[in-house]
Amino acid sequence: MRFYENSEDNNADRQGIDMMRKARTILKQTFGYDDFRPFQGEVIRNVLQGRDSLVIMPTGGGKSLCYQIPALVFDGLTVVVSPLISLMQDQVEQLNACGIAALVLNSSLPPAVYRENVRRIRENEARLLYLAPETLLLPRILSLLSDIRVDCVTIDEAHCISEWGHDFRPEYRQLIAVRERFPGAVCVALTATATPRVRQDIKTSLCFRHSADFIASFNRDNLFIEIARKSYPVEQTIEFLRQYPGEPGIIYCFSRRQVDELSEILADEGFAVLPYHAGLNPEIRQINQERFIRDDIRIIVATIAFGMGINKSNVRFVLHFDMPQNIESYYQQIGRAGRDGSQAHCLLLFSDSDIRRIQYFNRRKGEAEQEIADAHLNALMDYIKTGTCRRIPLLGYFGETYAEPGCRMCDNCRTGGDGAADQPQYGRLSAGKTAAKPRAGRPARMRRGLLGGFFGKNTG
Asked: pTM for the whole thing?
């Protein structure tokens, strides 16, 4: 595979045009889309020209096509690094359903399937290969790939590379060894959340030189953003859900115990709800996820283990029963709402107890890691307490300026803006309601307004 970087080379220009024409044909015939979304065409053109690319797009923005289409244009293999087995398997199944030869190698595969996938890679029968970073770094995998042509290395969830990111994973830092092993392969790094500091860290860690940055707007103008102080969180949650009867949504809790208890309470209240967390049997977890995606049930109560790579466009609300640990996680999670472009509601409940719990876990980290975690928490608290339009500090955190004086799609803009109020003001995209106290006869844990205790363990 020859890459073309000199725009003055007429032959290179002609072949570049031919590659983009082929990319558009693949977009239509394989994926069924008439045109590219914003930035997709530019990213694909840059990748096909052999230039490293940093791609920052919100959840649902179409990042996957930015490397999947070039993979079908290139002659060689595209290696995709992803942190989650479930996410890799979902993407491979979706690609296979489109007739694309995509494979995955991980420890969850039956031995016979693993050996067959290795054979297909050796025989150049695959266009995309999905791997976790620790799998890719195994000597036997690097040896396998050294015998074939690798034209593209894609790093999904690239914020995991940066120590300043919200989900730093040391094995991602070692991916520079892969770049050195395949110097002729173009590199694509993608994520939905990266501050300017994290973006620079990604490019430095991956030795990007002749590269381009593609940064879509972080503004999701169809999301109504609201933050409220907890008073009686279970009752607040039930009242909120009754504003959206029969509509799909996600509730995030801090711990597995909270997930189990809250989902049980909501089921008793008549809501079609199931739990999701890493402590569930994998088969049950998969069934619950599929039932939510198919709208067999309307509400999923989950830890942070849920959501990455979930292909569901009609989520009408995301409710944070507990305060997340940083703005990046918060933004990524609310980004799962309203991917169809229709209005959706994002409510965050917080309390002083939430803050103390996060501080407690931060103090258990090493000195450098604690400094970063504390900075993340401080930024989140500033966002919660702001009296301005919430989009101004939210977008500003990611280096984007919100030019409008207000959005009319957040609680502060609707109420005049004095930060998170002592009482919630949620409604169906309207302000003015306050939380009811627990009714008589509720379980004791509901009357207390707490689930799971202060130091809930098992947060995945």
From this structure: 0.82
